[in-house]
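so my prof wants the structure for this chain in the tokens format not the other one, which i didnt know existed until like an hour ago. anyway here's the sequence
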Amino acid sequence: MLKGNSMFVDEVVLAGVLTVGLMVGFLGAVGYFIWKDAQNKSKS
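here's what i got, hopefully its the right format
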């Protein structure tokens, strides 16, 4: 065990955090484009 490190950081944990981050970013980008497209449709 590592002394002074209370957080368990491993390759699997980093991969999980990266995967969740990419999913949130992708869904956020898709939602943003849908929102912008909906605004453009309502103006015209």
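also thought this was worth mentioning. The mean pLDDT is 86.
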